[in-house]
């Protein structure tokens, strides 16, 4: 009588979740990573996996293979996989659970961009909403005094300015005036398309990723022109946001001022009380 062979350790990925494993094999067969492209391999891989999540090829709550399994699926090294998955985890697209593994995050029904290193476009898209844009203007010009101070660029440098209205499921949610340091995004004004994420574009084309952001909020009334763009009455109070986003090296990557209509989607903020410790002992 033949005896079944037993193996130690965690079971193989395809034995635990055959459907998701097949999805990853399908992605792996379609992924085209080009080492000659300007975007790093990890950025290319990250974008391909995110697209699979957005299109539903990778369903919410489905398990992600181990790093080594992903290396085998996509034919890349572990540092490439680790950087790609780390970026998706930082942006809330993938959840890492100790001793259980990694899973595709489920969509959420509020916005978290105020307390995450995301733009409103990426945050709402990740939650399953249909996001569209109406670009009012995009151009390159010398920096203002404020922009020179934020980005640390001289007066003879340049910035790319983008004015956009973002809509979620057809309803205007924010009107944003964005500035980016021109020397870090050469030609952006010629390649950014309508209904395309700015963060996603600079990540895919230039390999630039936002690590953290400082944001300030206050109540404010829009002008008549701004109210018309937002589809509200001129006397409607909105949330005014000022934001500076930074890369991993601490350099300012984006500055914006925006009006946000919280009646379209609430802003969610999570606050955690740090533990008070004395000589390493929790005294709370």
TrEMBL record:
Domain HTH gntR-type: 39-107
A biological process term (GO) from this entry: negative regulation of DNA-templated transcription
Coiled-coil features, chain-numbered ranges: none
Gene3D superfamilies per record: Chorismate lyase-like, Winged helix-like DNA-binding domain superfamily/Winged helix DNA-binding domain
Pfam families for the chain: GntR, UTRA
One term of GO molecular function: DNA binding
Stored InterPro entries: Bact_HTH_transcr_reg, Chorismate_lyase_/UTRA_dom_sf, Tscrpt_reg_HTH_GntR, UTRA, WH-like_DNA-bd_sf, WH_DNA-bd_sf
Swiss-Prot/TrEMBL keywords: DNA-binding, Transcription, Transcription regulation
Name this protein carries in UniProt: GntR family transcriptional regulator
The organism of origin for this protein: Mesorhizobium atlanticum
Source taxonomy: Bacteria, Pseudomonadati, Pseudomonadota, Alphaproteobacteria, Hyphomicrobiales
């Amino acid at each position: 009588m033949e005896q079944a062979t037993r193996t130690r350790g965690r079971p193989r990925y395809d034995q635990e979740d055959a459907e998701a494993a097949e999805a990853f094999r399908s992605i792996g067969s379609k992924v085209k990573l080009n080492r000659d492209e300007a975007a790093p391999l990890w950025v290319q891989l990250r974008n391909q996996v995110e697209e699979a999540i957005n299109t539903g090829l990778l369903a919410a709550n489905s398990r992600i293979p181990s790093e080594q399994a992903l290396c085998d699926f996509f034919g890349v090294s572990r540092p490439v996989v680790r950087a790609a998955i780390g970026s998706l985890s930082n942006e809330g697209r993938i959840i890492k659970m100790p001793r259980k593994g990694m899973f595709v995050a489920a969509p959420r029904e509020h916005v978290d961009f105020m307390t995450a290193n995301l733009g409103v476009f990426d945050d709402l898209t990740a939650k399953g909403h249909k996001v569209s844009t109406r670009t009012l203007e995009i151009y390159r010009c010398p920096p203002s005094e404020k922009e020179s101070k934020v980005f640390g660029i001289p007066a003879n440098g340049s910035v790319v300015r983008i004015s956009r209205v973002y809509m979620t499921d057809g309803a205007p949610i924010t009107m944003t005036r964005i500035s980016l340091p021109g020397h870090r995004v050469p030609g952006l004004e010629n390649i950014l398309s309508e209904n395309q994420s700015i963060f996603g574009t600079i990540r895919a084309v230039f390999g630039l990723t936002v690590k953290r952001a400082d944001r300030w909020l206050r109540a404010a009334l829009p002008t008549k022109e701004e109210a018309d763009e937002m589809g509200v009455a001129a006397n409607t109070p909105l949330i005014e946001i000022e934001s500076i986003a930074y890369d991993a090296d601490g350099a300012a990557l984006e500055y914006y001022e925006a009006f946000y209509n919280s009646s379209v989607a609430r802003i969610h903020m999570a606050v955690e009380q740090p533990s008070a410790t004395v000589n390493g002992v929790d005294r709370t």
